[in-house]
Every structure is written in C-alpha cells, then in structure tokens.
Design goal:
single chain, seven-stranded mixed beta sheet, globular, 38% helix, 247 residues, alpha/beta, 19% strand, 7 strands, Rossmann fold
C-alpha cells in the first residue's frame, strides 16, 4: 500500500491534474440532487476535485486520513477540511445532504472495511440524500493495451469496490440505486516506463516489488515498443445511492 502522506506532493501531477479533476467533479455533480446544499467529500486527498465541487449553491467539507493530503486540501478550501478516518467519520448523524467517495473503496483491505466505510457515509447522510462513489476502479485501467497483456500474470483479488459489492454494502444500510455516470481519467493512460516504475514502488499491491513476478513483468514491459507513449486513458464509473426520506 502506498503511503499517501508521502504521495501528496506528486499526487495531482501523477493522476491527470486539472483536466481529470474537472471531469471527476462534473460527473459527481451530475448525480447530486438539485436541492443538495451540503456535501462531504470522503478521502478528499489534495482537494483538487473537492475545490471544484464547491460552489455558490453547495457547501463542501473534505475529510482525509493522510495528514499531508489534508494539509494541501486545506490550502485549497480553508476552514473546510478535517483530518479523519473514513471508517469512523468525525461528524454527527444526518449531517450532509450528499456524500461522495472518489477513488477510496478500492484502497480498502477487504469487504468488511468496504461495508464499514459505506455504513459511515450512510450514517452522516440526511434522509433523502445521495451517496456517490467510484466503482470498479482497477478494472477501468485495463484498456486492452499491450501493457495490460504484460500485466496479465499478476494475481487479481475480488475488488472491494466492485459494483456488485458496493451495491450490497449500500443495500445493507437501506440505500437504493439512484444513478450512474462516468468520466475520463485524463492523463492516466499508462506508458511502459511509468508502469515499470509503479511496479517498483508498490503500486500493484499483489506484485511484491522485489520478487520474481515483478522481475518477470518488468522484463515484459521493458520489451514493449514506444516506452514513453501513453496508452488510452481509462474511463471511471460512478454509482449513486439514495437514502430513503424520513417517515
């Protein structure tokens, strides 16, 4: 698992920067109820997307467990970001009209953690409110390229953020499906060289960076043509779930 406090300084540039943030924020907003006035962005990271979610009609609060990430987000949304664990959110029940979690659930250790985070998001959501989250993040990166073929030998565990699993977490808390959207991961198309670097730094958690599988995969990646040419960008999926109105 990456240390996201250490990743903070390079995070935005390595994740598509401003264009990807614009696309993600627009997709999230498209799934929010028109009458939503407060939004919690869980695992807000550096606040690059969070800042774009905020507007005259929507007051946004960000929360992140990585201190360096939260510090950067605070610089973008002064007074609106707190340090906190998504498994135990530091907010009262029914505090927000909407809650979003972009690129969070896939980082969790298993379905128990996934269910716990969705339960917390549902807890702080007001009746009638909407929870929005990305699903199937890892599979979105498989665009059918030669890089994906080189990565094929790596073990793939059941996705904590699989659409079916997320639907199950949500249903357990009384949330019902409300919509879907997608957005392009601008600038996140892999190159062979950047993928080799990701293998070495532990980005692929099922590939021990100093083991024989890593060596095999990096050799395959190094043999590919156009080492610096990005393959197609991924497209990420968002699902929304509604909390039943009171009464």
């Amino acid at each position: 698992m990456l240390d996201y406090s250490r990743e903070a300084d390079r995070y935005d540039a390595s994740r598509g920067g401003e264009p990807r943030a614009d696309a993600a924020a627009a997709a999230v907003r498209s799934l929010l109820p028109p009458d939503a006035r407060t939004l919690l962005d869980v695992a807000c990271g550096t606040g690059l997307v969070t800042r774009r979610l905020a507007g005259a009609d929507l007051r946004v609060t960000g929360v992140d467990s990585a201190s360096s990430m939260a510090r950067m987000a605070s610089g973008r949304l002064p007074g609106s970001v707190v340090l906190g664990d998504s498994r135990q959110l530091p907010f009262a029940d029914a505090s927000f009209d909407a809650v979003c979690a972009v690129w969070l659930l896939h980082l969790l250790s298993g379905t128990d953690e996934g269910a716990a985070v969705v339960a917390e998001c549902a807890r702080v959501l007001r009746p009638g409110g909407v929870f929005v989250t990305t699903v199937d993040k890892a599979s979105a990166h498989d665009v059918g390229s030669d890089i994906d073929a080189a990565l094929a030998p790596r073990p793939v565990l059941p996705a904590v953020d699989g659409a079916g699993a997320v639907g199950t977490y949500a249903a357990a808390r009384g949330l019902t499906p409300a919509g879907e959207a997608w957005f392009r991961g601008h600038g996140q198309g892999r190159t062979p060289r950047s993928t080799i670097a990701d293998v070495h730094r532990g980005w692929f958690t099922q590939i021990p960076s100093d083991g024989p599988l890593a060596a095999r995969i990096t050799r395959a990646l190094a043999s590919l043509p156009d080492q610096e040419v990005p393959r197609p960008d991924p497209h990420f999926t968002l699902r929304s779930f509604r909390k039943p109105p009171a009464g």
